[in-house]
Design goal:
about 300 residues, alpha+beta, two-stranded antiparallel ribbon, 10 helices, globular
Length: about 300
Amino acid sequence: MTEKKNVIMDATIMNMVLSCGRLYDFKMNHNLQQKNGKSNSLEVGSLVHKVKEVYNKNRIKGFSREQSIAQGLIAGEMYANGCPHCADWLDPENKPQCNHEPQEYPGVKNTPEQSEGNYVGWKYALDTCVQYFEHYKNDSWIVLESEVVKGVVLYEDDTIRILWKAKLDEVVDTNQGIYPVDIKTQKQRREKLTLNNQFIGQCLVMKTRNMFVDNIGFQKGLEPREKFTRDMMSYSADILLEWQSETLPAAAYKLLEMVESEYYPPNYTHCENKYGNCPFVKVCGSDRNMREEELRINFVKGPEWNPTNIED
């Protein structure tokens, strides 16, 4: 009897497998990332996530809302200025001591201090967090968990077993139920679709048919009630079952096929998306004998993506 193959997947891996094999190879097998770091959108998104994480964890530990907001904003500024270790500090009763050399941690290097053109400044991102907390000052949601990773075996047959890992920004009690929440920052208002591997996976891991998207907008011309919205993503039992029993295993088998053949085919229909071009567009657009040089000039080896412990 052939031993089952264990496949570990998360939304990031699944999306890459289904979009472009070469992108998966570059990102997951070779851990390549751009030398100039994250885009401005990702930088300010990470900053807001840091503020909310520290705020939530302080609230869970029993500190007051005011203390928790203050600590979240301090952590955000530390993160922006390039000290991710001190940004994880969670003791509101003692001032943190930072002994790190600033040059070791470039911080949000693609984010100016003040907003410039299409770039959101990190100070404006922090100010947006202040507006967010003020908007939800009478919030009835209770955060039970923050920035947690959960894993569940979602599929198994005679050949494979699939462990799905989900990174949950928050798990909240809304008084109507306990649901996962995904925090999304945005420069423009976009309608959220339920057809989303990340959202469906979170529902299955939490054994619920609903999850929330907590939208935090950076638009200066909008009122807080327009910038800060919460969208419920709801699914029928059949939609969840189809994804779990058909869509997910199809992606897992496709991944196994690429790994076993050691061939990761490009898919040129995914070179451009709503966030811009794939970072490897110039690589794929170069002759085969020039691609290694293009990778050497513009990319570096980053940390390994490990879905078994996403927090690291």
